[in-house]
From TrEMBL:
UniProt-listed InterPro entries: ComEC_N (IPR004477), Competence_DNA_uptake (IPR052159)
Superkingdom of the source species: Bacteria
Protein topology in the membrane: Multi-pass membrane protein
All residue ranges annotated as the ComEC/Rec2-related protein domain in the record: 162-354
Annotated transmembrane regions: 169-196, 208-231, 237-253, 258-276, 282-299, 311-330, 342-366, 387-420
Keyword terms: Cell membrane, Membrane, Transmembrane, Transmembrane helix
One Pfam entry name: Competence
Organism: Sulfurospirillum tamanense
Compartment annotation: Cell membrane
Protein name per the record: ComEC/Rec2 family competence protein
Length: 421
């Protein structure tokens, strides 16, 4: 007989105490960051050292050349502008710069990704290059096109996406596929578990039949995922997905109900206590919304369809459900974005295949198809979601936990931006 999963909270009092403690810890962590902010801004300027991640050459409205720079330090990512036609530093090099902090707000500092004016950009002596940098060179060497170099560096090493590639990604609606996040972690964990399980079973049946295969392989896969997280320098989108995976694994091993909205709320609370800056990251909230709508689908329909039908319906469901929130921040709308539904399914196979091709030195084998595919365009238009519509939609989404017809209704609302084209 299979035991029913335990409830996360026994009563409302436990809920209040738990989230009260999380709120207190969050406030304490933010107060520590505020002290760091005061120290960083007290002189009006701050000396910053870091790695130049991206240098995007542009022209002002007056035709004056400048470069948009992304400088990553151990504590934050600084965006700034260099009003020069030619830079003497390249992405990947160590640089120093004086950031002007007089008008830097605390919310910007808290986000760990902010813009400041700067001056005196200088190249620093290079230290020994790490594994990620060497892998980046190997990826670039397998592609002739700068766009393909940027695409696969972003896919595997979470490097910044240049403007031209970012526009391609927005038109196709596949930003969630290019930015390393929970989707990638899910593919990697599922693939790794599927490959290791038969080998583990072979040895388990002979030498340690008393061991729990789910626990042992889960620990191994999370350990490998942490190694990858370290390799890409703890990218926030992958970091939050990793924390959620670890917390979910803990609940699973404790036989506590995993697919519940209470579990999601607690996971979000724990992540924000550990990483308060994520409260200001829209990517974090997109991932939360995405998981919420997956839970909403499973809550109402998990026992109603076959596994292949779930694979199709769930992708359509999440695409439509996320449309209204996404269009508040990214109003570009095109029928081309509907292609993200089959592309999300295809990506499950494409991601490990492209990784295997790069390991074999054949990473450029698909460039002839990928580059024109990404550059293809359908007509698009700006269809923004008003703030009142976003707030109302999210409120109805919470109510939809109770009523299935409401869940279906709000998801169908996701098609409205296409009807307005």
């Amino acid at each position: 007989m299979t035991l029913a999963p335990l409830r996360l909270f026994a009563n409302a009092k436990e809920v209040a105490v738990c989230f009260g403690v999380l709120a207190l810890l969050f406030a304490l962590h933010v107060s520590v960051i505020y002290a760091q902010y005061q120290s960083f801004t007290q002189e009006g300027r701050a000396y910053v050292e870091g790695e130049l991640l991206l240098s995007d050459a542009r022209l002002s409205k007056n035709g004056k050349p400048y470069h948009v720079l992304h400088v990553k330090t151990k504590d934050f990512t600084l965006y700034t502008v260099a009003w020069k036609e030619t830079l003497h530093v390249r992405p990947g090099e160590k640089v120093s710069v004086y950031a002007i902090t007089e008008n830097l707000g605390f919310s910007d500092f808290l986000s760990k990704r902010f813009f400041t004016p700067s001056f005196s950009l200088q190249a620093l002596r290079q230290s020994d290059e790490g594994v990620a940098k060497q892998l980046s060179y190997k990826i670039h060497a397998q592609h002739e096109s700068p766009k393909m170099q940027a695409l696969f560096s972003a896919l595997f090493l979470a490097t910044p996406v240049p403007k031209d590639l970012r526009e391609d990604v927005l038109f196709w609606g596949v930003s969630h596929l290019v930015a390393i996040s929970g989707f990638h972690l899910g593919v990697l964990l599922a693939l790794g578990y599927g490959l290791l399980r038969p080998l583990y079973r072979f040895f388990q049946n002979r030498y340690f039949p008393y061991r729990n295969a789910t626990f042992d392989l889960g620990v191994v896969m999370l350990g490998l995922a942490f190694g990858y997280l370290w390799l890409i320098d703890f990218v926030p989108s992958f970091l939050r997905a990793f924390v959620m995976a670890c917390f979910g694994f803990f609940l699973l091993m404790r036989h506590i109900k995993l697919l519940s909205f209470g579990t999601l709320a607690l996971t979000v609370g724990v992540i924000l206590v550990l990483f308060p800056h994520l409260v200001l990251h829209i990517g974090f909230w997109f991932s939360v919304f995405g998981v919420f709508y997956i839970f909403l689908y499973l809550h109402h329909f998990k026992d109603r369809f076959s596994a292949p039908m779930h694979a199709v319906l769930l992708n359509v469901w999440v695409f439509l459900a996320m449309n209204i929130p996404v269009h508040y921040w990214f109003p570009l709308t095109s029928w081309q974005q509907v292609g993200s539904i089959p592309l999300s399914i295809v990506f499950i196979g494409f991601y490990p295949l492209s990784a295997a091709l790069h390991v074999m030195g054949l990473g450029g084998a698909l460039d002839g198809v990928l580059e024109p595919f990404l550059a293809w365009r359908m007509e698009g238009a700006e269809v923004p979601t008003p703030l009142w519509a976003l707030v109302g939609y999210l409120g109805l989404s919470v109510l939809a936990i109770r009523w299935r017809f409401l869940a279906v209704g709000i998801v169908l609302l996701g098609g409205v931006p296409f009807l307005l084209l």
